[in-house]
Every structure is written in structure tokens, then in C-alpha cells.
Amino acid sequence: MTLSKNKECRGNTLCFTYLIFSVALVAALLSACSARIESHGNFPNHELIESIRIGKNSRPQVSAILGTPSAKATFDQEAWYYVGTRTSKFAFLKKEVLERKVLVIRFNKQGIVEQVERLTKKDGREIQIVGRKTPTQGKELNVIQQLLGNIGRFSAAGDGEK
Predict the structure, then answer these.
(1) Other beta carbons less than 10 A from residue 102's beta carbon
(2) What Å distances lie between residue 152 and 36, 155, 156, 158, 161, CA to CA?
(3) What is the torsional sign of CA 73, 69, 55, 109?
(4) Model confidence pLDDT, tens digit, residues 108-133
């Protein structure tokens, strides 16, 4: 049975059902191939960022306006980072970063805003991960040595300390 101009298919409900099923199947397969867009982090509103005043706002005020930062400076609390990332993943391919925005707010020693800096994906740098391994102390055992080494180390039920 074909969907061409075959006389036996005209007006036949079975052919119509076959056509509907085929269209639905193709639509489902095509929709499964669309890229997934994901947003992670904090994308502060432009108006909220503009409301932060250098030399006027304190840490609690910034926190009330923008919310909790994504990260704080490692060694001091003088910089807050609001990081937002939008990624796209198509099927089994690697994730692609579409957009990254970083808002850096620096405070002086009194906790007042000293600088507001906006960074984007263009400002980022790729970091090469070092593949070396740190040697550990001790003896390396294979699976059989680990299994046989435990024989006789277990006590019978009820022989434990009280």
C-alpha cells in the first residue's frame, strides 16, 4: 500500500491513519534533534546593576538588590562574583557556551562598593588542565591482592566488642 495516486488508497481510512502516523513520527523525530538550551547561574537585570552606586552601596544593600553572589573572593571578601552561563547541547555533541556574563563587584575595607565590572565570554581564557598525577605513598595492590588480603580479617557475628 503506497501513498501515491493509487486508486485503492483514495478515501480509505487506513491510508489516512497511516499518513497521520507517519507525519507524527517524523515530527517527533525532528523535535528530538533540536538543541537544548540551558541557563545556569545568576543573570542580574540591567536596571538592577545600574542601581548599584559606587561609593554609596554597602554589602547588605548589594545583597538585597542582586541577591547572593555566585562566588566570593577566595582570600578576602572584597570581591563578589555574579556568574551566569547559557549553553547549548545538540544530541550527543559537546556542550557549547553561547553566552557567559560575569558581574564583579569590589568593595573597599569599609564594605562600600568600590568598582562594578562586567565581563563576557570574550574576556574569558581557556585553561589547560595538566594531565600529570600526584604519586601517593603506600603499596599498590591489584584486585586479587585486595580480595585475598581481607580473608580472616572479619569476625563472626556477635563477636564484636560490647
Answers:
(1) 20
(2) 54, 8, 10, 16, 17
(3) negative
(4) 999 999 999 999 888 888 888 888 88
Q: Rounded to the nearest 5°, which phi and psi values hold at 101? A: -125, 130
Q: φ, ψ for residue 49 (rounded to 5)?
A: -65, -40
Rounded to whole angstroms, the Cα distance separating 101 from 117 reads 11
The type of residue at 137 is: Q
pTM of this structure: 0.59
**Which of left, alpha, beta for 41 (phi over 0: left; psi -120 to 50: alpha)?**
left
The dihedral over CA atoms of 13, 14, 17, 23, expressed in degrees to the nearest 10, equals -120
Chain centre distance of CA 42: 12
pLDDT tens-digit profile of 55-111? 999 999 999 999 999 989 888 779 999 999 999 887 778 888 889 999 999 999 999
CATH of domain 35-123: 3.30.1450
CB distance 104 to 80 below 8 Å? yes
